[in-house]
Amino acid sequence: MTRLRTLLPLLLAVLLCGLVVGATPAAAHTELVRSVPKDGAKLAKAPDHLTLTFDEPVDLADVRAMTPDGDRLPVTRPPHGSADTVRIATGSPAGGTLFVVWSVVDMEDGHASSGRLAFAIGATASAAGAQDRGDEAAAAPSPSPLVRKGLVAARWTGYLSLAVFVGGLAFVALLWPRGAEASRARALLTLAWVCGLLSTVAGIGLQGAYSPTLDFARAGGPPPFGGLRDALRPASYTEVLTTEPGVALAARGLLWVLAAVVLSALLQGGAATSRSPGWRVGALAVALGLLRTTGMRGHSSEGSDPTWGAVADLVHLLGAALWIGGLVMLTVAVLPRREPVELAAVVPGYSRLAAGSVAAIAVAGLVLAWQVVGSYDALLHTSYGQLLLVKTAVLGGVLLAAQCSRQWVRTRLDLAVLLRGDAATVRPFGYSVAAETGLVLVVLAVTSLLVTADPGQ
């Protein structure tokens, strides 16, 4: 097992490259497949409407039409239409160029996509001129950089809170029942619950500011993407909650509320509750629900086989939660106590749990990479693939630190117990665990960026 953990980063990189060669590329975010009339077409007169067809079902987020002088033209959307096709009334410009800027929100992961179309209208207009004016006058809208950063921060906080809460509960239930009565463990679980709930609520508002809305398009008002202030608008919440990503976020929020019941029972009942089969079943149900609703908005739903992607994503998140949550609990709550009996009982058990979790993370991660990346070109030449390589490299550093911790367990744990938790003896283990924890936080940060990145295939 020790050699396996040492070689795991190299094996992971080799298998990652091998899998993406043979994988079928998955779709990235929502893309425009075709428009009628065709983009850049020269038309004798303005069409009554445009028909846009996308590669998957969409919610039309923003449409605007502009004259060659940049004046806005009336834009409407029919009340009915197929899931992947939208008809847009354009008005009747007498001549020149018609611009349409479109933007949609992916129904699976909530990411925004946008583009522009240009048409030459009239006998004297040229298609090339239409495209040139389109580049100058009809830049596609994009979300605020602050909103993007806010979403990344909310997701990072959400991932860390989820891992600490789920992994911490598992750590207490399986390895350290007395931890339910330890002040640091109780404070850590409570803090994780508060941050998890707040990050979910904030994520709904930020998603509303990140995603353009139909109201702006119908009103012909300002650019549809909002700033951080719009994340506080009640309308941002109501708009997001009508979409599939919003429903997933709402479900996660409700599960965090249910998690309060699980946590409250543990804090009140202590070690006896942590050993109770009924409490463990309830905690497991809430934990799996939190993990599943977290994975519902990721790129795993966009692969060639969404079912396998969902299973792999759940296993990946569960393994990460058990590993990271246990690691943080060990660092914050167990090691500072330096109690010999706890060190002898908890540390070897966590070492075995971490080894199994890392193996699950590696296998599930390879399946997800096969689902989403799909080719060497996407792995090496897209921001998503490059971030995935960075994550793999940092994960290798984490495993090297974990190997140092495991070596200490094999060679020095008995001595530390014999010396009744001597500080000098335990200190090297604390350093390696702290390094492992710090690098794990970097992995979570890269993961937060991956969620917002476009696979770009």
How many strands, what sense, and barrel or not for the largest sheet? 5 strands, mixed
Distance between the termini: 37 Å
Query: In terms of structural class, how would the helical and strand content be classed?
Result: alpha+beta
Q: Give the helices and strands as they follow along the chain.
A: HEEEEEEEEHHHHHHHHHHHHH
Share of residues in helices:
55-70%
Radius of gyration: 26 Å
Strand order within the widest beta sheet: 2-8-7-4-5
Strand content: 5-15%
Overall outline: elongated
Low-confidence stretches: 1-27, 133-140, 213-224
Question: How large is the count of helical segments?
Answer: 14
Overall structural domain count? 2
Task: Give the integer mean of the pLDDT values.
Answer: 75
The total strand number stands at 8
Secondary-structure map with pairings?
Elements: H1 2-22, E1 32-36, E2 42-43, E3 49-54, E4 58-66, E5 72-73, E6 85-89, E7 96-106, E8 112-121, H2 127-137, H3 145-174, H4 183-210, H5 214-219, H6 234-240, H7 244-269, H8 271-274, H9 277-295, H10 306-334, H11 340-372, H12 376-381, H13 383-418, H14 423-452
Parallel strand pairs: 2-8
Antiparallel strand pairs: 1-3, 3-6, 4-5, 4-7, 7-8
Please provide a written account of the structure.
The protein has helices at residues 2-22, 127-137, 145-174, 183-210, 214-219, 234-240, 244-269, 271-274, 277-295, 306-334, 340-372, 376-381, 383-418, 423-452, and strands spanning 32-36, 42-43, 49-54, 58-66, 72-73, 85-89, 96-106, 112-121. Residues 1-27, 133-140 and 213-224 have low confidence and may be disordered. Strand 4 and strand 5 form a beta hairpin. By secondary structure, the protein is α+β, with helices and mostly antiparallel strands. It folds into two domains: 2-23 and 144-452, no CATH class; 32-137, Immunoglobulin-like, CATH 2.60.40. The protein is elongated, with a radius of gyration of 26 Å. The strands form two sheets. It has a five-stranded mixed β-sheet. The protein has a three-stranded antiparallel β-sheet with strand order 1-3-6, with no helix packed on it. Helix 1 (2-22) packs parallel to helix 11, helix 4 crosses helix 10 (306-334) and helix 10 (306-334) runs antiparallel to helix 11.
